[in-house]
């Protein structure tokens, strides 16, 4: 399993599996198949499996009495107690990240944000990718996929890996699980990486401000 080194020296698998909105037997079977294939990294964010954060009218409920700083210090306590080894942030923009770096004793090991060929972004820290891949019908990516005899999804995942991004694809199909994991036997050339760089549209697909009235995502 290929890994990326975090700022605390620990290794994190560079490819994972998202289990968003999966529960019960379906997630049990999915994890069993994924582990057999070789996956060791699973994105189990609670927001994907519960609507408890929404009130009866579907409006997002936000507890403004709990600060991000106090939440972070509580997570640091988990590290001190040996309950977790690494902690990170999600959807933090540059300002929130700077704040966190200023008040934290344990620095965030990763920031999980949306990024894909249509919404490319660079950073000086480890990035973990989430978000729908909206570019699978792109003619440029299709051409690259044909060149390597791979699927477009495999090309996109490989592109993310070569940018030192931890990628988190999601699928419940056994064939797709295997395909998504089979991205370590080839490498995109520098020219093809530049070619994919040219398809960037600054297109964010996760826009909660349109639905909930608050911009949660960096």
Automatic annotation (TrEMBL):
Coiled coil: none annotated. Residues 62-119, 139-200 form the NADP-dependent oxidoreductase domain. GO terms for molecular function: oxidoreductase activity, acting on the CH-OH group of donors, NAD or NADP as acceptor. The keyword Ion transport does not apply. Keywords: NADP, Oxidoreductase. It holds the Pfam family Aldo_ket_red. Belongs to the aldo/keto reductase family. This is NADP-dependent oxidoreductase domain-containing protein. It comes from Coptis chinensis.
